[in-house]
Each structure stands twice: as structure tokens, then as C-alpha cells.
Hints:
The chain is α/β, with parallel strands linked by helices. It is built from 41 helices and 22 strands. It is 41% helix and 11% strand. It is globular and about 95 Å long.
Amino acid sequence: MPDWTPIFDALRRAGVRDVRADGTTRAMYSSDASLYRVPPTTVVFPRAIDEVATVLDVCRAEGVPLTARGAGTSVAGNAVGPGVVIDFSRHLGRVLDVDPEQRIAVVEPGVVQAALQRAAAPHGLRFGPDPSTHNRCTVGGMIGNNACGARTLGYGRTSDNVVGLDLLTGAGEALSLPTASDGRVLGALRDVTRSGLATIRTEFGRFGRQASGYALEHLLPENGFDVLRFLVGSEGTLGIVTRATVRLVQDPAHRVLVALGYDDIASAGDDAKAVLGFGPTACEGIDSRLVDVVRERRGPQAVPPLPRGAAWLFVEIAGDSRDEVLERTGALAKGCAAIDALVVADPTRAAALWRIREDGAGLAGRSPAGKPAYAGWEDAAVPPDRMGPYLRDFDALLTDFGITGLPYGHFADGCLHIRLDLPLDRPDGTAVFRRFLTSAAELVALYGGSLSGEHGDGRARSELLPLMYSTDALRLFGAVKHVFDPDNVLNPGVLVDPRPVDADLRIPQTAPLRRNLALAYRDDDGDFAQAVHRCTGVGKCRADTTGAGGVMCPSYMATREEKDSTRGRARVLQEMVNGSLVRNGWRSPEVHDALELCLSCKGCASDCPTGVDMASYKSEVLHHSYRRRLRPASHYSLGWLPRWAAIAGRAPRLVNAVTRLPGVAPVALTLGGADRRRHVPQFAPTSFRRWFASTATERRTTGDPVVLFVDTFTDHFTPDVGMATVRVLEDAGFRPRLTPKRQCCGLTWITTGQLDAARRILGRTVTALAEEGVPIVGMEPSCTAVLRADALELLGTDDARVVAESTRTLAEVLGDRDGWAPPDLSGTPVVAQPHCHHHAVMGWGADEALLRRAGAQVQRLGGCCGLAGNFGVEKGHYEVSVAVAEHQLLPAVARAQPETVVLADGYSCRTQITDLTRREGVHLAELLADQGKRG
């Protein structure tokens, strides 16, 4: 596709600096977090506010639609458009001022809500609204759809917390509110309001979560003609916000959670209105179906004990007096209609319970039936006193259509969230979608409700507004739009003159892709298209979760470019499958551009709410792109590393001597496609397998047998890790042994997309390991992960399943060992860098539990080390590799005292530490063995 369009040229001539019309960018911005696909012609990343005005002027002059976008987390299709998309999150994301005396902050529209919270926190303040996407959504986006969140009862909606707006109308006029009091726009708006006073008074502002349409109630004379509050929630159709002043609040000193159990979700809805009498700051409803999914996908430890029931209300009571808060919580527990109640005053226990709600909301992208679950009808609201009956009728509607989902929501506000497994992949899927949305809208209107409770109408619901509002109300919407945006430049197709709800749907435009795939995609019906469409666009990959141990997405953390996020890559792959925007299949330049900086860390496989596994998708792409073709040099050098290591292992001292000769290492690195700033690793004089064979007579002959999987890295580069593992296992009463022949998991072939070779190599290994018939202990996390997960995708055999079930980490084996106690590590400070594949596939919980049981003081780092196997070694990746390491690893190591243990089980992690610091990383086995010797 061409990188140039007429509007691109016009914008560049007007002086706008960051303008892009390449296929990669257009593919990434073709969708948001909704069902809709609308490729833009051009994407702009304004570097200054005056550029925003320029973009608007050019679009008006050229007659090109303009859509404002923050983090792109809109689930209603509010942030996609056919013309120019203007992304505020790239350059205009600053907190300009925090005034603790006035309790206000001035921000640019692209500031992430969490960044605003960090700026306000030192003053003991916060911004009240807290949507579930708080760690990546922008304040501008929150203003666009009047975002709310779980604590609306305590803090109000965004419209209750914005006290000043600077914006440009669609006609190009600048408004500064609330100070502006006259002018063409405000005069005409008064005239429109006067023409519809009776309609506005009877149809608008009926309950708190009536978010559909324009909030005309704020324009009533008795409400002070509050244009500022009216504009919040107008979905970018009337103006473009360039600056906002927001109210900050002080958190109450005490919070207590009351978990209330009910027989079913509707009974919880029946009781929600009564909860309001106790003055809660939050009242969230969740269903057992949601809890079951959290338990299944996150493990039983993810669900702490709950009160009896099949549905629950999580109610938060807050205040500055602990006694008063506890008195209210006690009264609530006794005074409601719940069948059981649990009062949780401990903040840690309360956070664990709230996490069920947060994790469940993310996991709702897959239905109880395991099918893809979609937005589109995820945000309806009814008056709170009608919540229970509405839930019963809505459940019956789902049954009638054969649709399932995981219900949850802000029940005391009357708002229900649910993603549904609508059959969009069927030939009649689009028709079913339209019939269901129409029936659902009729139902919510019957209850006096709103099509949207906080997400906005967007492309998903705007066409359905006539089912909720009268003809007079719709006329007022059109008149208001004409006042602000007479040429219909801003976000056309939304709210006024809407696009059909079933137009521009992304899934029906995609055909299955099942033929000639190298991987099985077992959880996606063998369909690569379904796999890449796991990405729903909620953008968690743009959030920095490393502080909580998250990994996804290290490349985005380093570059802050959408194309380097999991979502950006998934969107490009979706367009590749679609074939209309990215046209050259697996070898498309857009695809390789998006995947170039993917570290194959697998962080997304565990951290993405819908389980996107970009490392596997990258392997598939490389497999098809280079199969039976000349590959990049690094695929032969690093991709075949086990083969070269086996050869070098026959004369390791000679090989080491040669690589130390002047000029040899730089030439070898260059020829191998590696960065010259990396070093050529030295081979161990004696491999681990040779040591193991030579010390056979010293080995114990009793104990429970286990097979050590000897990876290339342990065998040829760090045999000390293997020796330590043997000592620790023998001390724990095990009898370790090796396979008779050297085996390889094929990891380096997998990551470079040489999947035919990987299948052969891994197949032989799996057969040999399955024949052993005893537990398998992995030492290198990435290789252990291959046996646990990749083997099932690449082979799918009975032997692969046996090996996956039999493979354990050292910490898992020791943690389950009755009678074994770890050596005393009391007071030992440990900075731990879990390997990304360890985190994603096995989880690092067993390791952390073992270390804490031993008495160690553990600081677990999040994020990736940045080397990530071959990635950080390859030419062109060094700067990003270092930038990833600088996010968490390097600062933590720099702060570490000399006595602090830098723990890193992964060979690549230890290599990165050695290359970039003056410290050495140690393996868990080495730490335990060394301390055991001292003990």
C-alpha cells in the first residue's frame, strides 16, 4: 500500500511533523477495542497543541473526517474513523500542573490516568474516576465517553470531576470552558436548548448511568446551562479537547470490603438498590461463571474464600473514622438480603478479592463455552431498583439466542458489563448480531434504561438510539451536532447520522486460516485467524505492569510505539489474514515491520487477558516467510546454536582460544548477524554431561528417580548450574539421571521460525523423555517451557502430553517434597529476575514461595531482561535490548548492595547482567547448593 495520500501531503505542507500513512500504521489504527474495523487514510501524532488546530483546519478544508484517539481502548468503536485519526497518547501526555491547595490538576488530553494519579499522590490526592483500564486509558478518552469505573458511587463520573476544558469545535472555533459565555456556538446552543426544553426535562438525566446520546440535561436553565458537563461524554463528535482541568480528591483514611453472597446474579441485582442506603463508595456484582473462569485460568490460588452463593456483591465502605466504617459494614452485613456475608478489613485480603473482579473482567474475552466473546452489548444500564428483574429477562434473552457470557458490573449504579460469544464467524452471524442488539436495546428501553452506562454509543449502539429516545430528542441531537460541527468532520457515523451497527464489523471480514500451519492452535480450533483475533484491543500491553511482576510488553515499554505493542502486532496480523490492507501474506513488509522488535518473550501469553501468544505467531510468520528460502544470518548462527555448541564442545579450549584472538570475535559476530557490542560466549572446559558421567560412582544409588533435561546452555556454557542442581536434588532425596543420548528441545529453531527442523528435533527428544517414565526436571526455564507448552503445539502427540505433564521446575519439585526443608537464607537479600518464559508458562510462584520459606528477602522484578534469547544479540536490536533492561533490571542491580544475591535462572538473563553490569547472576540451584554447603 502507498505511504502517501493527498491528506498526508496537505498535513506535511501545513507543518505537522509526525504524520504517517504507511500500511503498518493504517493497519494498527484500523480498530480500537471494539468489533469495528475502519482503516484510516492517515494517522497524526501531534507534538504540540497548535498542531491539533492545524490538523483540524486541513481536514475541514479537504473535507476529510477527523477522529480523536487516546489509548484506543474504546469498546464501542468511538476511536476509529475513515479519514485522519489523531493519536494524543504519543506526544501530548503531560501533567502540566498540580495545585494541591485548589485540588486541581491541568493535563494534556493524552495523559494516562495512572500518570495523573502518580503526579497527585505525593499531595495525598487522586483523580476520582477509576475505570478498569486506568493504567493505560487517557484522560482525553475518559472525557470522550464520560468514563466512570467501580467507585462512581464515591467519586462520581468524569463529568463530575472536570472543571475546565479547552477545545476546538468542528467549525474550528476555540472554546475555553467554563469561562466562555458568548459567541456563535454558545448562542446557537442556547437556541437549540430552548426549542426542546420539555423533551430534555422528560427524557434526559433520569438516572445516573444514562450515558447514551448527548447529556442535554446539563443545558437546562435550572442546571445553569453547563456546557462543560454537557460536552463530557460527547464522544469526540462535537469538539477536540486540547487541555483539561480536573478536580482531585482525597482518599478516605479507611476502606473495608463487604462480600455478600446470593443464590444467583439476579438476586444480587435485587439487593443492589438497598446497598445504597449504607453509603458505599463501590458496589460491584460478579457471577460464579466469572469466578470459575478466574479459578480455571489463573489457578485456585487466584480465588480467596468467598461467602456462600453463586453470585456476589463486593461492597466497599469508606470513611475517615475506622469505628464508623466498621459500624456501617456490620450494619450492611446484617441488613441486606444476602445468604452469607464476609467483612474484610485487611487491605491485603480485600485487594485479593477485588483482583477477582479485575482479572475476571479481563478474562471475559473468552466465554464460558471457551469461544471468543465480543463487545457490542457490554455496557447497558437500567435504574438500580430494576436491576434484578432486568437481569432475569436479559438472561432469558441470551438463552433464546443461544449466547453465553460472563456477567459483572456496577450493580448499585444499574450498569451491567458482559462480553458475548456472538456467532460472528457464521454465515448468518451478522444477521444474528443485528437481531440480538435490537432485541437487547428494546429490552433495556422497556426498563427505562440506557443503551450505554459509561462506554458511549459509538458505532455499536448509535443506530439503536431511536429505540430509547423520541423523534424530538433525536432532532435535538442533530441540531446540537450542526452547531458544533456543521460539516460533520468530527467522528462521523457516531451518535448523529450513525453507521449501521452491523457495518464495518471486523470478524465477518476475516476467513479462517487453517491450511499448512506449523503450530496446532489447539485453543483456537486450529485457526490462525481466530488466534490473532484473540486480541480484543483493550490495550493492557500498553500498560506498565512490571511493578506487579508483569512482563508484557517489553518492546512497547522501550519504544512507546503502537507497532511495538502486542495489540499493534495483532492488528497487523489481522489485516494480513484479511488481505485487503496488508496484501502480501506472511512475507508482507508490514508484518515483518511490526514483528521486528518482538522479543518472543511470551509475556503476552500469560499477561494478555485473552491469551495472545505473539511469540508463537512470530514463529509461524518466520516459518512461512523463510521456508525453503535463504534466511537471515542469525537464523543459522543463533538458530543453530545447539548444533554449533555440540561441535565446539569436542575441543572447547581450542575454540575459546581462537575466539580470543584479536579481531576474530568481531568478525564472527558480524558474519553471524550479531551485534559487535555483544561478546562471544566461552565454552566450559568440561561439559555437564561429561562431568555427570565422570562422577557416576560418587552419585547416590537410592532415592526417587528424576530425569534432568540437559539443555545446551547448561551443558556447554554453565555446567556449574547442572552440578548444583544435582547436589540440591540429591540432598532432597532424589536420584537424578540423564537420558542416554544428548537431547535438545529445539528452542532456538522455534524462535527463529525453523519449525520443520524444530519438530524433528523436539519429536526425538519428547520420545526419549516419555520413555523414561519418571518426573523431568528442567534447569533452563526457556527449554523447560518448550517441554511444558510448545511441544503440545508443535507435536500434539501423546508423548508430548506425557512430557508436558511430567516436566517440573526445580522449585516445583522441591516445594512438593515432603520432609525437605530449604537451607536457611534468613536475612539474605535477593533481587530476582524471573525468565520471561518461566513467568509466562510455569509461573514463578513456586520459586518465590520457596525463597520466602527459606527466609530470603525477595525483590521480584517485572519485565524482561531485554536479551530474550537471540533477540538482544541480533544486529539492530542492541539499543532496544538495553532500553528494556533499563526499565527494571539495570536500576535494581545498580541499587543492590554487594551482599545482595542477583538471582536469574535464565542463561540469557545472566548473560545480559554480565554484559551490562559488574555483577553476576546466579541460578536458584547455585544459591541453594551454596547455602546448603555453608549450613
